[in-house]
Every structure is written in structure tokens, then in C-alpha cells.
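Exercise (ungraded).
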Amino acid sequence: MGLPRGYCGLCVVCGEPGHIRHHPGAGRFTGTWCDFHYRVLAFTHPLAPLGTFLWLTVVASAIFAARHFVHY
Ligand SMILES: [Zn+2]
């Protein structure tokens, strides 16, 4: 398939050579990502452990900000 040695597929996001691996969040979904996009996915996807933490932080600060700005 013309892939460089050591790579098993092309990244589904950018088409760069990458590795087939499980989605960081949804266990049953397997795809191919380059190292960069796998990391991006792990940080941004709500189902990934790090993504969950990130989104909880965002939601928590949104609630905190709302309580701070709304005086009742
Ligand atoms: Zn990529």
C-alpha cells in the first residue's frame, strides 16, 4: 500500500501514516490515527478519560462563572 515501514495505516483525519488502535473513549471503535491526532482525540473527546476531565472542568467553570455573574 506504499506505507512507510512501521506504520499500519493512514490517519483518518489528515491522511498521514499512523497506527491502527482503539478509540480512547469508545472501546469498540477502532481506527487509524497518527500520533498527533490520537493525542488530540484523547484530549478533546468527551468519552476519553482526559476528555471527560477536560469537559467537566469546562462545565464546572461555566457554572461557577454563571453563579458569579448572576446576582439574585
Ligand atoms: Zn492525523
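Further reading is listed at the end of the chapter. For now, observe: The longest strand covers residues 17-22. The chain has one domain: 9-69.
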